[in-house]
Amino acid sequence: MAAAEWKVMRIIWRYQSCAARDVYKETAAEFGWAPSTAKTLLRRLVDKGYLQVRQIGNSFLYRPAEPAIKTLAGAADALLSNALEGAVGPLLAHMVKKSKLTEEELAQLRKLLEEHQPREK
Amino acid sequence: MAAAEWKVMRIIWRYQSCAARDVYKETAAEFGWAPSTAKTLLRRLVDKGYLQVRQIGNSFLYRPAEPAIKTLAGAADALLSNALEGAVGPLLAHMVKKSKLTEEELAQLRKLLEEHQPREK
DNA sequence: ACCAAAAGACTACAGATGTAACCGATTTGA
DNA sequence: TCAAATCGGTTACATCTGTAGTCTTTTGGT
Hints:
Two copies of one chain form a homodimer.
Chain A (H helix, E strand, L loop, with lengths): L2 H13 L2 E2 H12 L3 H13 L3 E6 L2 E6 L3 H17 L4 H10 L4 H13 L6
Antiparallel strand pairs in A: 1-3, 2-3
Helix pairs in contact in A: 1-3, 2-3
The structure holds a DNA duplex (30 and 30 nucleotides).
């Protein structure tokens, strides 16, 4: 998924489900896109299976084809396997440093690390 | 950076510094690429500033323009800002679950999480 | 000194991405 | 009811990516 497509996905996730118009209202305001740009992106996301559409009267309702976390996890996996094939530690460290995390998220991550079987060196 | 480019970067990182021939030997063996494919990728990576070249005799020596971790961190940052703009927790959790980490890496991550200032909810 | 091998440079071309105009159908406000 | 706004669909086009052929120059071997 390319950057412009992520922008559209984020909007859809926020709305949970919305019409083309909602999307291009936002992309116009946020990025100055022409409506047709948003429409093209929506079509491509449907083609790729990231979005589903349902017709409502003369108009269409877009919604994510799968839960956001699944899509995100897929992207993360692509990065991991594309980029480093195994040497993930330092990258995770970097991401933890740069991220804003809530107390619950921190707790969950600590728990995961406790449970994590270390790999032999 | 696209998938094919990552493949080349990984080879260069492994060699630290190498000639075009080393790269296309590997890409031929691993992915069945024609030598020219590897050469094109090398050129593009130089154009984009990911690789530096130095001439050695009639030939060129390629090496990373910046430390691998910096390139990787950049890619991770792009994913974070492209994809989710803030809601990193569940993604990190996913990555931790899927990763193989050494004992040292686990320790470092635990330490980072200890020190991490939680964000207000 | 010559020729085959190898290096890098240039060119190619299909598919993906970023960005958008135009078009015909329909809804709707006046 | 009639024109304006809107909808989704189709088409466009420049750039980037994946993959590779060709050309010219260098060079190592004989």
